[in-house]
């Protein structure tokens, strides 16, 4: 196990409330960037928060604080969504997002949440379908922000329209499914970041990085059915039958997808009849 993997494993053992989100996001980055110095990025984050504090008046109301923070991050510093190369893995690495000021919804949201927290703003990540959001505040006065679009506040009808675009009109709406706007846990945020990287490395055919991302996700949440199945099949393709069997058997135990269970059971039977190879 590398030093970065060991650091990540130790972090994953912590209770969710004890996880420092910025440190954890940098631990994800370190899995794919040997030699990364997290302390330097954390110092940069603290420096940005200190600069933001000079522009966000403590006595201002919530709306004015958000407006000032948005102006600092998106107008002055020019943080923006990377629309030209959305699937560049650097968009998921917190150190790279801070340096390049380019990212995707979830990585930009993590930076926003961390800076807001240092200013005393109640900011939370929201794993909204299709597009990660930031929630400021709780209750009926909460603001839902699209950080990828410069921190624009989204009213309920816009959120409903986004759901309709994904699932069809009348299928889901915020009023009947308020849990869609509940704050995500830190583990959920990290797993979602890793799922982005899993997809990127899968599409690129970078199997070792894909395997690292899958293993990190399963370190955080050991019984994710999709990740167990994908890692098991990847192990099979890499000709590592013992590990493949372990993941696929666990998938059968935790999945509720009858069709996939049937297909995976056939693969298990095939692998079980092969001679074991040691790697």
UniProtKB/TrEMBL annotation:
The source organism is: Lamprobacter modestohalophilus
The record places domain Protein SirB1 N-terminal at 41-195
Organism domain of life: Bacteria
Q: Which family does it belong to?
A: Belongs to the UPF0162 family.
Q: Which range is the signal sequence, renumbered to this chain?
A: none
Give the protein name, as stated in the record.
Protein SirB1 N-terminal domain-containing protein
